[in-house]
Amino acid sequence: MLVLKVSSPQKFKNIISYIQIVFAVLIYGGYQIVPRLFEKSVLKNTVIGEAPALLLAPPYWFAALLKESTQFSSHPVVLIAAALALLMPVLGIYVVVRFFAPTFNQKLAQISGSSGEAAVAKKVAGNRTTYSQMMANLFTNKGIEQASFLFSWRMMLRNRDFKLKVYPAIGYMLVIFAVSFLRDNSLSDVAEGLDLSSRKSNITIMMLLYITGLVSITSLGQMNFSEHYKAAWMFRVTPVATPGPILSGAVKASIIQFQLPAFMLVAVLLTIINGPMALLHVGVAFCNLSLMAVALVMFSNDYLPWSAPVNKNNQGSSVMKTLALMFALGILGLLHSLAFPYWWACVALGVLAGAAAWFSFRDLQKTGWHRLKTYQY
C-alpha cells in the first residue's frame, strides 16, 4: 500500500513484477541453500532462538507469543517479540484505515483502467549509439533482421509477462551455482573444482557451461506469446518477402542479451583459474547452445515473435518438441564431456557445432510464410 501511494500505477506494476521475481528466487534459494548452510561446521552450534535480530522477522513475533502462552520465558527478546505480536496488528490496521485506505480504491482503478500517467517522450541524441544498436551492427544484417533484433531486444526488456517467466530462470541458475559450490569450504576448493586438469571437475564445468545457456533457450520458448498479440498484424502488412530475417533477428537478440553476458562471466572465471585453454570449452558450449536455440525456433516455434496469445503456450506438441531438443542438447553435452580431456576433439566438436549453427541460421533466414501460423482473432 505504501508503494501504491507514493508511485504511479505504471511504476507500481513494474515494482510488483520485480517483487514477484525476487520472491520466487528467494523461496527457491531458501529451500536449496539454507538446509545446506546448517550442515556447515560454523553454523552447527549456533543458537538463534533468542537472537535480537529476530525481532525484525514478524513470524518470530507470533512464535514467541505462542511460546509465552504455553511456556513462560523471561528472556527480554522473547517478551518484546510477544508484545509486538499483540501490538503491531492493531497498529497496522489503524495506519491502513487512517492513511492508506482513502486513496487505495482510486489507485486500483488507475491500475486496472487507462487513467495512468501518459508516457513522456525522452529526447535522445541523434548520434548516440546504444549497447543494443552496437550489438545489432556487429551480429545482424542491415534491414529486416536488424530491425527485428532491436524490436525483440526492447520487448524482452519491457514486457512484464515475459520478465516474470524468464527472469526467475536467471535467479534459479545462480542458486544452482551456489548449491554446487556450497560444499567447498574455501576459494581454493572452488578453484580446484573448476580445474581443467582434474577429471573430477568435468561434470562441474559442464554443468556450469550448459546451465548458463538455458536461460536463452527459456526466453525463446516464451518469446512467441504476448497479451498484446493482436498488435502482430504489423508483421503481415509490411513489405517483407519472407519472415526468416524476423525470426533470425529475434533469436540473435535472445542469445546476445541472455547467453553472451553469462558466457563472458564464465569465460573470465575459468580463464583466471585455468588460463586461455578454458576458452576452448566455453566456445564449444556456446556453439552447441546456439545450435539448439536455432533448432528450437525452426522445429518448435510456429509463430512470429509476440504474435500468439498466452493460452497457446505449453501445448502438448510444442512441449514434446522442446523435450526432444533438450534430449539432443544432452547428447551434445555428453559428446563434449567425452571429448573434454582431448583438446583436438574439442576443437573438432566446436568447429562442427559452429558450422551447423551458422548453416542453421542461414536456413532460418529463408523461412517462408507458409511455415508459420497466423492466430485468428
UniProtKB/TrEMBL annotation:
Origin: domain of life: Bacteria
The keyword Phosphoprotein belongs to this UniProt entry's keyword annotation: no
TM annotation in the entry: 15-34, 46-66, 78-101, 164-183, 203-225, 246-273, 279-299, 319-336, 342-361
Keyword Ligase on entry: no
Record key words, sorted: Membrane, Transmembrane, Transmembrane helix
Name the record gives this protein: Uncharacterized protein
Species of provenance: Phnomibacter ginsenosidimutans
